[in-house]
Specification:
The chain is mainly β and 253 residues long. Helix content is 8%, strand content 37%. A hairpin with a 2-residue loop joins strand 2 and strand 3. It is globular. It starts with 6 loop residues before the first helix and ends with a helix.
């Protein structure tokens, strides 16, 4: 009997809202910090503003004050429940709850939001400190952006796997930031998606030049997708896993 691939339960559907009014959709995933579980997603999802010009993303001009996170229900694979997480800790919306990168701050388009509503929730976290098998990840290798383009799912709230290719040398930083480029026809709603090198098994090329046989699917977290370099291109921006690790590791007791 065919099973659900684990990454299909690790990507979470997000709805950014203001006092219950939907403004936009996106994607996120969970990681574990020293203070507990956090939602990793794009900064622009939670600010409700574009990273490049700070203009509101929603056509209504609204800015979110909460995010509805559709979490997996404990012991009920294929069932989800929306959990409301506030984005600010004060009524004036000045004290943001999310944590930004310890060095890059607002320049990094990914953040960690501490999760508080976890009753009856099953967590399937990514560990950016242990991103997966040490597979060969180089130009033209295939990767998948696992999220919710245009707010749609592949059935229930299982994400869509959009597959493309590594488009830049992994050891090189695009624009002097910890960014990897990919060539993938990804679209709005996939912001915040984990980007994964996923192999279904068999012989897999490894980073040391060898090949290894796997009797199970193997994967490696490449980073978090945050949009395209411009509206006319399919070249996408992926913030590297190493930078996500730095963020999560900065959240201490």
């Amino acid at each position: 009997m065919q099973q659900i691939a684990k990454p299909s339960v690790q990507s979470l559907f997000l709805q950014m809202r203001f006092n219950g009014q939907p403004l936009s959709t996106g994607t996120g995933f969970v990681s574990l910090s020293a203070k507990g579980p956090v939602l990793i997603t794009n900064r622009h999802n939670l600010t409700g503003r574009r990273q490049d010009n700070d203009k509101p993303i929603s056509p209504t001009g609204g800015i979110p004050n909460e995010v509805l996170v559709f979490q997996n229900l404990k012991g009920q694979l294929g069932s989800w429940q929306g959990k409301i997480e506030p984005l600010y800790s004060d009524p004036e919306y000045e004290e943001k709850r999310w944590v930004e990168h310890p060095v890059l701050g607002a320049k990094a388009d990914f953040v960690a939001l501490p999760l508080t509503q976890l009753d009856d929730v099953e967590l399937y976290p990514y560990d950016p400190g242990k991103p997966g098998e040490d597979m060969l990840i180089g130009p033209a290798e295939s990767v998948s952006v696992i999220g919710f383009p245009f707010g749609i799912s592949a059935g229930g709230l299982f994400p869509v796997w959009a597959t493309g290719f590594i488009a830049s040398e992994p050891i090189v930083d695009f624009d002097d930031l910890p960014i990897q480029l990919i060539d993938c026809r990804s679209r709005q709603g996939q912001s915040g998606s984990p980007v994964l090198a996923y192999r279904s098994g068999g012989m897999v090329a490894m980073a040391d030049g060898s090949s290894a046989a796997f009797a199970r699917p193997v994967s490696k977290l490449i980073g978090i997708y945050s949009g395209r370099i411009n509206a006319e291109s399919d070249i996408g921006i992926v913030w590297k896993t190493s930078a996500i690790f730095d963020l999560v590791n900065s959240i201490q007791l």
